[in-house]
Amino acid sequence: MSLTWLSGAVFAAGLAALAALLFAMQRLRVRHRDVEVVTTLFWKAAVKDTRARVFVQRFRHPLAYALILASASLVWWAVAGPRLASRSEVEHVLVVDGSAGMGWGSRLRDALAATTERARALPRESTRVVLAGARLETMLDFGEELPLFERRAAALEVAPCPSTVQRALLALCATAAPSGGRRIEIFGDGPIDPAVADLLPPGTTIARAEPVAASRAGNAGIVSLGIEEAASGAWDRVDVLVRVGGELASTCELSLTLDGTPLANVQRDQGSDGVEWLARDVAALGGTLDARVLGADALAADDGATLVLPVRPRIRVQVGAGVPSRVDSALRFDPGVELVEADPDVLVRGAGDAQLAGVPTLELTDATEGTSAFVVRRADVDDPDARLREAFAALGLGEIDSTALADQAGREIELTLEPAATPSISMWGALAGPDYDFARSRAFPLFLARAVRVLAGVEELAFEAAAGRAADVQLAPLQGDGARRALDSLGAEFRWPRAQSWSSSSGARVQAALLDPQATHALESSTVPPRESASPGASSAELLPWIVLAALGLLALEWWLVRTERMP
Amino acid sequence: MAVQRIPADELCDARFLASLEHLRVVAKRVAPRGRFAEQRSRDKGSGIEFKDYRPYSAGDDLRGIDWNVYRRLGRVFLRLFEELEDLPLYVLPDISRSAYLETPPRARAGLRCALAMAAISLGQHDRVGVFPFADDLSVLLRPTGGKGRVLELARRLGEIEPGGETDFERSLATFRGLRLREGLVCVVSDFFDPRGIEAVTSALGKLQHRLLLVRLVRQSDARPELAGDVRLVDCESGDVSDVSITSEVLARYRAAYAQFVEHLANFARSRGAGLLDLDVERDVIAQLERLFASGAYTA
Asked: Is the terminal CB of chain B with fewer CB neighbours within 10 Å at N or C?
């Protein structure tokens, strides 16, 4: 049972208002017909014990009230447009994929047409149409008429985002299915993880409607855009890699610009899953890198990608007087380090050198008894084992021949973790001396470079900002807690909802690209076998004739009661 | 609703008068000191019906001496005969507003009845007085005789203006104040006095006359044709009663009306008065003939 024109709450409120109004009217004094008679002598005697109805006195005719209330309720019910589902109250949800992948040719139009036809066959009061684009939008709500959907769909365009069908399903399934069950039909090729089926609430079925034919011809699109440390070793430069996929990838041309200036030294290679463009030694000065496939193809949404390059200033390091010269020399040749006399980012000091409060420090300590060879001090030591493994890898200690060092030292070479408000790394100063081979090994400058970078908080240049993928904290300090990943409002990893220019809360601008191979390649969606074959919607039965009959029956009953003087 | 008087031509015509000729009012015995007429009286005089003897006294008419008695007893006695006198008829038609309300108005039948009674009495040389009443009594025709006064009386009845509220107590008190010779008082009314039927019978009981009560009725009195929620307005007093008419209310109404009728009948029975229910929607003469069962009504 459902109502076409009124919601349940409005219907109930109207019914209550009617009941109150009729009750008040029942208590009102009736309008008496004036009749002049020769005498009221006998009437006075007759009505002595049965007074006439007067204003707001006792409720005299509950039967009359019940009858008029029943009649009014029937009329109000008829106004509400009740409909009775003849089979069951199955809720139908038609999900239209509005992601970039539907931009191929007329796929979106075809999907909308198929949705329209399907919706036409289903009962309006239990059918909803949802668009899964960059966000979930209701295109046609329960009870709305189909022309509304057609009008709303006329100007619809695909959103430059990966398929969100699966996300839409999870959102839909967050609410309990109605008693008659919920049937979700998907119009589009958005992938659906079969594991999602396990999350469905009871009574929910998913089916993919008639597959929307996907032509795979005539497209080339950017499927990957990334940067990495410059292979040349230049500290303030990065290498940019652009990968183009699709049928036309091998023949297409790519425009690669930095702040509008075409990049030089771009190398084109044929990869296993597309064509790669590599631009080396691109200045990491915060410029915007724009990659664009030239020429028209079947899908425009994946033809462009932009990336904001990081800014990489050199690390300011102050070296104390007591520091061995080998350390000083190693740091001097590090391209990422700038030796300064004051205001450093990192302090390197010997055992007798003064400390700088609040400055991360690499300390060269005496190898006294009970002191570990390497000590990492940091604020976050909640998981010591994990942090130790992390520090071991970050400092490149795996490159050290620790056995030889232990033999030379006559004691174990240990790495320990200690809590401290200001991060610091300690190393026996003797290890940098002539008595140990460590200072002469390849691991020594590597350790120093890593230690300085860890202390300065510099991370590796490897990231990408793509719609639908988790955002790196460096580019998206949206939640601003310095954590590894930005979080969305629900605490999950923040993912760029669509490809466009975004501004973080701190004002940083981030360009998120589409980079959706699924869309670019028009890959076949995973098959979700329908648990229930699609069938025409249950025909709804009109209740109006029955309501009219009931109202007439009530009128006949009232007439009979009046005629037989059972009711005045 | 405006009420109108009943014109004389609706009260009297030749056929009406002719139909009354065979009706008579007969008194068992009329009061003494009446005018010579056709009714037997308690007076002794020159009638033909022997009544008594009395000793002769000086000045008596010698023609009345019973010489046979004188011959047997040697004493002179006078033979006395019953005097034939008249029976005064006092007609009291109800001209209150209620008598003029409905269609046909009760006053039409009431005045025709009053005229008929007056015509019958005038026709047998009785004196007739007509005293219409509503909230008080008025004198339309002082007690007088003569057949020729019928048309005059009809004309006067046709000029009666409708009155106001019915007040038996006051009207009959006024009538008693006239100190008329004992006769037959014919009250033609619906007897709907706002003070109740007890007040009516109490006032009637104080009359030192013979009574003939003609009650003007119509069928709707006993079975009112009303339904639904009505505001009943008393045409005389203006009293208002809001009534939601149900079968229960109707039953109580009928009970109250029956009690009213029974009370009046009991009074008439106890007083030896005549009581006639005159249906105002039917022919008056035909109903009067029921009263005059063998051509005469014995008062």
From this structure: N
